[in-house]
Amino acid sequence: MNASTPDTNPTTIDPAEAARFGAMAADWWNPKGSSAMLHRLNPVRLRYIRSAMDDHWHGDSEGFRPLAGKRVLDVGCGAGLLAEPLARLGGAVTAIDAAPENIAVARHHAEGQGLAIDYRAGGVEALAGESFDLVTSLEVIEHVADPAAFVAGLAGALAPGGLMVLSTPNRTPMSRLALITVGESVGGIPKGTHDWHKFLTPEELKGLVEDAGLKVADVTGLSFTPLQGFHLSDNVAMDYLLTATR
Predict the structure, then answer these.
(1) 62 pLDDT band (50/70/90 cuts)?
(2) Residue 118 annotated as binding?
(3) What pTM was estimated for this model as a whole?
(4) Of residues 202 and 193, more confidently modeled
(5) Residue 158 among known ligand-binding residues
(6) Which residues hold S-adenosyl-L-methionine (predicted)?
(7) Does residue 47 lie within any of the structural domains?
């Protein structure tokens, strides 16, 4: 495309990244397969999201369906590892992913679980005009073509009074060692999953979120130790979660 010609159909999707993750679709729900790391991360991420929800909406931390009556959006949903628990918590969940292969697997798995989830193939820019009470996008922004436009799209989908939760690796020597040098050699993460140069520091992600008109409410580290496994901490050197509100 000529540099002076505007892109009339902009997208935040990186086709190469979509193809990479789509190729893993059939193995997504295998806890010992190519998405094993996400299976191990999921309980910790869900605890963080539940705590953020209870704080934001002053909910009952013991309740089983805290998302009842709320619209939920999960962007970069893969085959539904996060979307399904959010639906079980009572949310009316819409989940989108750039890889159609992932959406096909997600729909099939949700049907087997008796869960009604609105799965869609596409990018965040296709959500114009829709709004959601809770927006999540975990370990996704480091794989998109335009992080600023991606965050703006997420923010645009967040309803007034809504809550957004993001997670992503930090761009530090620790993340390079843990996620790429070790993780992609002996840690079970497929080779080529990460590009360290596309990782965002908390300061960079905060800036994108604030530029999109939201207020950052919390940043919490996601760490790993042999004794504790993955756990929340004050150390953001490897990975972190961020909550924001409108």
Answers:
(1) confident
(2) no
(3) 0.92
(4) 202
(5) no
(6) 45, 76, 97, 138
(7) yes
Structural domain includes residue 183: yes
97 labelled as ligand-binding?
yes
How many residues are listed for the chain in this entry? 246
Number of structural domains the chain divides into: 1
Highest mean pLDDT among 17-26, 47-56, 120-129, 178-187: 47-56
Sequence-separated (6 or more) residues with CB below 8 Å from residue 186: none
Q: Does 2 reside within a domain? A: no
Domain residues for 119? 19-245
Please write the tens of the pLDDT for every residue from 13-59.
Answer: 999 999 999 998 999 999 998 888 899 999 999 999 999 999 999 98
Please name which of 126, 127, 120, 131 lies closest in space to residue 97, comparing C-alpha atoms. Answer: 120
Cβ distance 157 to 127 under 8 Å? Answer: yes
Place of tokens 């961020």: 242
CATH number, domain of 198, equals 3.40.50.150
Q: Is residue 11 part of a domain?
A: no
3-class DSSP state of 43: helix
